[in-house]
């Protein structure tokens, strides 16, 4: 059967996401039992213990559908953020919200603007919806916000920014952001993906929630996947005007956030101890990795997130595997020879450096 007769060209030309092998398979292949997976920016300290306890308690209720309005989670989020619940939407991971936003705003043939080395999902879901992507070159490892504002055309519906950006780890400053806001036409939606904002401690970091005013089309996206260690649960949220949230809700599946995710996220929101531990581990881990990479003479991009984009060299990611070290090669993001290395526990970071040092010294 020639399936291409039935499927639109913009779907056929997509490349399916290539998931990594399950960690158990990698371990079996190399005969190891204690591998270090620092490839996906997951929380190395595990999930919020409060979330785990809350989830365990509701397992007997799995026969029931989830609350389609996530009443309690929205209530607590609204309190924490100091805003009305009508400005909140929850997603099956913030990735689902990215997809809902594109489907709501972009018509076939219209465009979005992204950074050339931004999170790939923006382009993928846009292409799947028949949209065009305008990818703007970075300056160094950073977004060029002035050029991105400049790149907006008459048919541009959305500009996507992730701050800090995955996979470079870089952030843009308040000054750059405010200049950008002045340049971008008010009928273009600005999506600010703040998946890593809890890891940033820089006074120049602009919290996009402070810019949701005077009729601006803006969405802030956040997630429980990283700081709370709940990537497997799939839950994230968006903040926008009630009118914009109402538009998104029209295409939202009624039960898009499952009941365990709602309960787990609610408990994790108030797990200050786990959040603090995660931030401390990350700060110390970044400092350690930077110092060790400097010692080895290995280059990396400056990072404000929970990972580093490291120039480990072509083929090195593969050579780290027999030592049980799993990092994410970045050819696909336009950085050949680089890998994205997530901050692990102190012992995981040390094992990565040890294995890398052995390879660097062989060269
Ligand atoms: C990890 C990450 C997310 C989180 O996605 P979820 O679907 O919430 O797990 C979102 N945006 C960026 C840029 C990320 O790196």
Quick overview of this protein structure:
The chain is α/β, with parallel strands linked by helices and 363 residues long. The protein contains 13 helices and twelve strands.
Give a description of the structure.
The structure is a single chain. The chain is an alpha/beta fold and 363 residues long. It folds into 2 domains: 3-46 and 273-362, Aspartate Aminotransferase, domain 1 (Alpha-Beta Complex); 49-269, 3-Layer(aba) Sandwich (Aspartate Aminotransferase, domain 2). The protein has helices at 9-12, 23-30, 49-58, 71-81, 94-105, 121-128, 145-150, 174-183, 242-249, 259-269, 272-296, 316-320, 346-362; strands spanning 36-37, 88-91, 111-115, 132-136, 156-162, 189-193, 218-223, 236-239, 307-310, 325-326, 328-329, 339-342. The strands form 3 sheets. The protein has a 7-stranded mixed β-sheet with strand order 2-8-7-6-5-3-4, with helices on both faces. The chain has a 3-stranded antiparallel β-sheet with strand order 9-12-11, with no helix packed on it. It has a two-stranded parallel sheet with strand order 1-10. Helix 4 (71-81) runs parallel beside helix 10 and helix 5 crosses helix 6 (121-128). It binds pyridoxal-5'-phosphate (PLP). Pyridoxal-5'-phosphate binds at residues 41, 93-95, 119, 162, 166, 193, 195, 223, 225-226, 231, 236.
């Amino acid at each position: 059967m020639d399936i291409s007769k039935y499927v639109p060209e913009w779907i056929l030309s997509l490349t399916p996401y290539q998931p990594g092998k399950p960690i158990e398979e990698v371990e079996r292949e190399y005969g190891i039992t204690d591998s270090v997976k620092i490839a996906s920016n997951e929380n190395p300290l595990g999930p919020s213990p409060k979330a785990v306890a809350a989830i365990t308690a509701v397992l007997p209720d799995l026969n029931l559908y989830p609350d389609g309005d996530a009443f309690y989670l929205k209530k607590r989020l609204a309190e924490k953020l100091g805003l009305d619940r009508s400005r909140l939407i929850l997603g099956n991971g913030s990735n689902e919200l990215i997809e809902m936003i594109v489907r709501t705003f972009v018509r076939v043939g219209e465009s979005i603007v992204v950074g050339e080395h931004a999170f790939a999902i923006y382009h993928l879901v846009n292409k799947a919806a028949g949209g065009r992507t305008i990818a703007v070159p970075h300056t160094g490892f950073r977004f060029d916000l002035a050029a991105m504002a400049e790149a907006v055309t008459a048919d541009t519906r959305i500009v996507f920014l992730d701050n800090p950006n995955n996979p470079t780890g870089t952030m843009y400053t308040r000054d750059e952001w405010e200049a950008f806001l002045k340049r971008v036409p008010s009928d273009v939606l600005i999506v600010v993906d703040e998946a890593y904002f809890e890891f940033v401690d820089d006074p120049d970091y602009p919290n996009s929630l402070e810019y949701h005013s005077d009729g601006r089309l803006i969405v802030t996206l956040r997630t429980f996947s990283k700081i709370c260690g709940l990537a497997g649960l799939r839950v994230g949220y968006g903040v926008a005007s009630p009118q914009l949230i109402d538009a998104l809700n029209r295409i939202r599946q009624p039960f898009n956030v499952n009941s365990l995710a709602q309960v787990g996220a609610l408990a994790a929101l108030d797990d200050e101890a786990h959040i603090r531990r995660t931030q401390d581990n990350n700060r110390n881990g970044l400092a350690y990795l930077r110092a060790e990479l400097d010692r080895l003479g290995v280059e990396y991009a400056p990072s404000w997130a929970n990972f580093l984009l490291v120039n480990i060299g072509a083929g090195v990611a593969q050579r780290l595997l027999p030592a049980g070290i799993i990092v994410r090669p970045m050819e696909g993001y336009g950085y050949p020879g680089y890998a994205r290395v997530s901050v692990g526990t102190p012992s995981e970071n040390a094992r990565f450096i040890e294995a890398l040092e052995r390879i660097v010294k062989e060269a």
